Amino acid sequence: MHERERHRIILSAIQEKPVITVQDIAELTEASEATIRRDIASLHVQGKLRRVRGGAEAVHPPQLGNLAARPFRVSESVNIDKKRAIARAAVDLCEEGDSIIINGGTTTFQMVHFMSARRLQVMTNSFAIAEHLVKHSKCTVSVPGGAIYRDQSLILSPFDNDAIRNFYARRIFIGAQGINALGVMESDALVIQSEQKLVRQAEELIVMVDSSKFAKRSSLILCALDKVSTIITDDGISDEAAAMVTDAGVKLISVKPMASSAREDTSSVA
């Protein structure tokens, strides 16, 4: 990842919470902690953040948001090669005319780049996904009622009487904060409440995660692993994690990350 992109991610991340650690940023950018310390020092000199012991803080600390979920702009470019390949495999599962649900997230968002020529009926709680499909596809797009959470680009509602209960899908595609033997994990109770409503409206649950998510943990469980139909991930998945998935009776699809030239081709189409 180039220095400019790392700096963008760091500056976005400190708008999520007042202080972020070197370790957190290294995980986001897949860079070494030494590199991140140099980045923080550079941004400190430029006056764009304050260097603190073990991390960095915003010059003007943000107000805490309503969701624990990471902002969309922070995660969008992380592991992008893997996310694009996973998304292409997800769209390949769809047949013309299918009704599908796409839950908001940076991995699921990448599906839009492979849907421009498709005619699908799509329900999504992602403002970014809905906007892109309306502008660049032939899909029929529906969104639920609720409040728009700008940072996460999500439309969420705590109420049951919204458009979700009237939409029936063959498949739902979701991302996750982590996956382990206990199940699919998320970080925010309101996000889980929304996802559970969506999951109830679909025949099959497809989880889209890059291989790093099998090493991550979160405090909340969306559902048990045996409730998942298919997991799509990249070929960096460990043998142990792959065995955990298949032993739970879940279909595993492993894909190779997309080369940069292939990403450019899909971007030009979209």
- Tell me the structural class: alpha/beta
Radius of gyration: 19 Å
User: Could you spell the SSE succession in H and E letters?
Assistant: HEHHEEHHEHEHEEEEEEHEEEHEH
What fraction strand?
Answer: 15-25%
Helix content: 25-40%
The largest pleated sheet is described as: 7 strands, parallel
* Mass-distribution shape: globular
Q: Kindly, what is the distance between the CA atoms of the first and last residues, rounded to a whole number of angstroms?
A: 23 Å
Which blocks of ≥5 consecutive residues have pLDDT under 50?
A: none
Please work out how many helical segments DSSP would assign: 10
Q: What is the quaternary state of this protein?
A: single chain
Can you list the strand order of the major beta sheet?
6-5-4-9-12-14-15
How would you sum up this structure, described in words?
A hairpin with a 2-residue loop joins strand 10 (178-180) and strand 11 (183-186). The chain has a seven-stranded parallel beta sheet, sandwiched between helices. A three-stranded antiparallel beta sheet has the order 1-3-2. The chain has a three-stranded antiparallel beta sheet with strand order 10-11-13, covered by helices on one side. The chain is of the alpha/beta class. The radius of gyration is 19 Å and the shape is globular. It has helices at residues 3-13, 22-29, 33-45, 72-75, 80-92, 106-109, 127-136, 189-199, 239-247, 260-269; strands at 19-21, 50-52, 55-57, 99-102, 121-124, 140-142, 147-149, 154-156, 169-174, 178-180, 183-186, 202-208, 220-223, 230-234, 251-255. The protein is 34% helix and 22% strand. The protein starts with a helix and ends with a helix. Helix 2 (22-29) packs across helix 3 (33-45).
